[in-house]
Design brief:
Length: about 180
Amino acid sequence: GGGTAGSSNTVASAAGRAAVATAHATARGVVSISTYVQHNPAAVKLLCCLIGLCLSVASVLSIFNVIGSDDEDEKWTMADTLQSFYVFFFGLLIFVCDLPAAWGKRAQDQIFHYFYFLATQFGRAFFYFYVGSISLALLPESDFWKFTYIVLGGTLCLLGLILLFLRFCRHGEEQRAMS
């Protein structure tokens, strides 16, 4: 009977040490995730931030039909409204991700922790392509909103290309520097 109690204490002790080590590693991971975030040039960050904000504002205005036509033929369907709702949140996410760290560090740390792909240029580029493409696909009857979503969605797709270009140009420079 004494051997079982001793091995059970050893297992419990090892499990306790593992739990403490995991807690410390997790705390370091949350703190240091910001060191792995890939940063973009200021002009790109500013443009991404502005497009994200414009996308959110346009989505809210279109959902509530603040600007647009009162014509019955140009009313939004439930699917258009739902898609605009998603685009609103995606625009906010883009806005927060590209804010200067001094203004949005806490929110950015949370976003980058739970959605790490947004911390990388590659992941963020494809997110911009996704949001840009759903914005381009959201073609309401109103010419004003059609134009607005084409411009915003097209710009986001272009920004996605720019991020990929920056990512692969930097990656090529790093490869040449290591050779």
